[in-house]
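Example record for the data management plan.
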Amino acid sequence: HGGLATWPRGIRLPSDRIGLIGAPRGTTLWKREVDDPSALAAGQQFIDTWRAEHGRPMGFARNLKVETGQEIWRLATDRIKEFAVDRGANLQLPRPSDYARLPWLNPLKARLNLREYQSRRWDPVPEKFVFLPLQVQPESSADVMGQEWRDQAYTARVLADALAPLGIGVAVKEHAHFMWRRDPDYWPQFDVHPGIATIDPFADSRELMKEAVFTVTATGTVGLEAGLLGLPVVTGADMPWSRLGNIARLGSPDDLTQFVADRGWESLRADQADIDDWFVGDYVRNSWEGLVLDPPRVPAVLEPDNIRKVGGALGEAAASLGHRAGVAVAGKA
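Corresponding structural encoding:
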């Protein structure tokens, strides 16, 4: 851990807590050296109620907003304001050429994409299937942490070819947070494969993972959700939840062929008590209360109290390395 390789990021479950994330290969949580009973209590309270809830996964209602024309214009306006200030000097912001190319920067392209998505006829869910929810892309989770798994279409094809002799299909579902951002010409490569069904993006992912033979994701939070439910999962990167007994980590999509041939999902099992112990005593224990999200959507991110919480997490981590506020430790400056 250290430097630009570690940054604050929401741990997703619970949604009001953050961890310090190490990258680039997979995701590792900073191990806190300070005992924090409130973190353990938050984890226990969450897991005690989460499985009993039958509603949509966290963030679903907020993600629905991305399908609206108002959201398209909001994002485009934000990017234009950023460019007006930085004049292209900030390398973390889009280049001028990106505004013509990328749907989330070009409102005209975005509206055309949205129209295509709204008129597209999605496939029915196969009777027997493996669930493959797509991730937002380009994005660091899929493209950097996911490594060999960054080509999601290739993963779907390899998986479908391996499952075909078993009469099992692949249910590919668009991310509800990425409607209109992915160009419609992405989908024909799925449509031509008889073993791949592209299903309604607004189908309930939690119900799909329960019905699936198993779930495949490179780095997605769906792996954590399915893992907490004790369901079989294949993940492509080394995520915090990869250590659970019901989750298999494979090095590349090509490894799915042997995994399917061996019916590897049948051996993915974990005791619910062990899952809960990991979630409370390892995952949430190494987190802090706070929010790290898009400020226009979640204004509370910029509230002084939240900034203090995020700063406190960074301060605690710095102290564990021997740093103190305003003082550079000898040999570590």
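Summary line stored alongside the record: The first helix runs from residue 37 to 50.
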